[in-house]
Amino acid sequence: MRNVYVLGTGMIKFGRYPEKTVPELGAEAALIAMKDAGVTIKDVEMLASGNLYQSNAMVGQRILQQVGQMGIPVINVANACATGSTAFREAYLSVASGMYDIAMAVGVEQMGKAGLLGGGAGGSDPAYSPEGKIGSGLMPAVFGQNGIEHMRKYGTTMEHFAKISVKSHKHATKNQFSQYQNEVSLEDVMNARMVAYPNTLYMCCPTGDGAAAAILVSEDKLKQFAAGRKRAKIAASVLTSDPWTERDLTLPDVNTLTKRAAKQAYEKAGIGPEDLALTELHDCFATAELVHYENLYLCKEGEAGKFIDEGGGVHPSLGGKSPVNVSGGLLSKGHPLGATGVANICEVVWHLTQDERAKARQVPNAKAGLAHVIGLGSACTIHILTV
Amino acid sequence: MAEQAQATAETGPRPIVPFLKLGAEPHLVGSKCSCGAIFLDTKRLACSKCGSTGPFQTVKLSTRGKVYVFSVVHQSFPGIKTPYITAIVDLPEGVSVRTNLVDLDPLAIEKDPKPLFDMPVEMITHVVAKDRQGNDVVAFAFRPIKH
Ligand SMILES: [Zn+2]
C-alpha cells in the first residue's frame, strides 16, 4: 500500500437548507475541496460518495452532474453514521492500492427536522411496533444506557456528562461551520428538558443538513499538486464492525469495536494516544463522548470522569488538555449523518496544516490528530492523520 | 382476500414478538447454540457468536432476572405514554432482554439511580394495543419482585 495525503478539503456550514437538494449540497463541498486542492474535476479519477437517506438514489453520480461528468468510477456508500468516513476510506483505499492517484470523497446529508432516530417499525400493523412497549431502541435511550453502564461500573455522575456538553458548546463558538454557536452553562444543561436519562436536550446532537469533501492524492503526485504546501498524511484508516459480545443484540456495544479500531489505528500509525494534538470523536450524545475517552485510550479504563474533572477534552487555550471536539463536536457543530465522517477529518486536517478555516480555534503543536465515527448497527472508523 | 379471511378467523390475544409465549404461564423462549450463546429471535440461520449453523435448541427462559442498565424515556413515538423506564434485564440463562420496567417511579429513579442496578425483577404480561383485526396485542414487562 502507498502513502496517501489529503490534498484539499471543503465543507459547508452545517444547518438547514430546505431550498437545496442533496446533490447541490454535496457539489458545493466538492467544488470547495477541488479549489483548495488545486485540481479540476478532470484530475479526479474516482469518487466515493457517502449519503444515508438517499442511499438508493445515486447521489454520487448526481453530484457529478453538478460538477462535471467525466465518466469516472463512482461508488455510493451507506454505513449508518459512519457513512462519510467509510466513503473517505474507500477513496483512501483506491489511491493506496495504486489504482488511482487522485480520488474524491464527499459526505452529504439532508435531514431537515428529522426528530428522534431509531426504534423498530413492527411490520405493517403499528400495533406490533415494539418501540416503547418492550423497551426503547431510540438513540437517546440506547446511548443513555451506555452512559448508565459507565455510572454503574465506575460511579460516573450526570454532572460529568453535562460538563461535556458545556465544553463542546464553548468550543463551537469559535467554529464558523457549526450549526449552533452558543454557550450553555452547567445549570442550563442539567436543567434542560430530559430526552432520555441522563441525556438532556443539550446532551443530544441536533439533526440537520450539511456536506464535506476531501481530495486524496498519492505520494507520487503530491509534489506536483501540493507545490510546497503542507499536507496531512493519512497514517491510518481503520474500519471495524461489532464482534459478538454478551449484550450487543439488546444494548448495542459501542465500546468493543471502537477499542479494536483504536488499537489497530495506533499500531498502523506508529503513534500512541499521547501523541495526538487533537481528537474529533463521535459525540452523538454526551454519554457517548465520555465512554469514547476510554475506548480511544485518551485516559485509563474507568477514569473518564476524572479526565473530565481535570480538564481533559478541553481546548488548551481554555486551560485544558488532550482536546476533544474543538470543532464543537456533533453536539454543537451538528450531525448530518453522511457528512459527519468527512467533516471531522477536515477539522483534523485544518489543525495539522494551520488552515485559515480553523485559525480561531487552532490547537498548538499539531503534528497528529484522530477522527473517530460510530455508526450504530455497528460500524466504527478511525483515521489518524499526521504531518 | 387474505386480510378478510384473517378478520373472520379466530380472534384472541397475540404476542407482540414471536419469542413471547402466552398461555397459563407466559414466558420468553430463545434459541441456544452448542457454543452456549442464546438468541431471542428464534429464526436464525447461523450463530452470531460462533458461526455454527445449528441445530439450535429452543429453550424456555426464566421469568426472573436482574436489571443491568436502564434509561428513562421522556420523548417517544405518538401514543407511547412517557416518562417510562426502558431497561436491559439479565436472565440467569446468560441472555439479556430489552424491556419496560413497571411499578417503579421513573422520576424518583432519575434522582437516585443506584437501587436499580442488579434489582431482582420478574416478568408480567399486559395488553398494550389492539391490532387491525381487533386482537389484543400482549407485551411483556418486568417489575420489582415484592418480598
Ligand atoms: Zn454458537
For the largest sheet of chain A, list the strands in their spatial order: 3-2-4-7-1-8-13-12-9
Please, how many domains of chain B? 1
What is the end-to-end distance of chain A?
19 Å
Mean pLDDT over the residues of chain B: 91
Could you please describe the fold and organization of this structure?
The complex is a heterodimer of chains A (387) and B (147). Chain A is an alpha/beta fold and 387 residues long. Chain A has a single domain, classed as Peroxisomal Thiolase, Chain A, domain 1 (3-Layer(aba) Sandwich), CATH 3.40.47.10. Chain A is built from 12 helices and 13 strands. In chain A, helix 5 packs across helix 9. The longest helix of chain A is centred in the first third of the chain and has 16 residues. Chain A starts with a strand and ends with a strand. The mean pLDDT of chain A is 96. In chain B, the strands form 2 sheets. Chain B has a 6-stranded mixed beta sheet with strand order 1-10-9-6-7-8. In chain B, a hairpin with a 5-residue loop joins strand 3 and strand 4. The N terminus of chain B is likely disordered. At the A-B interface, helix 4 and strand 5 of A face strand 6, strand 7, strand 8, strand 9 and strand 10 of B. The site of zinc ion has 7 residues of chain B, from loops.
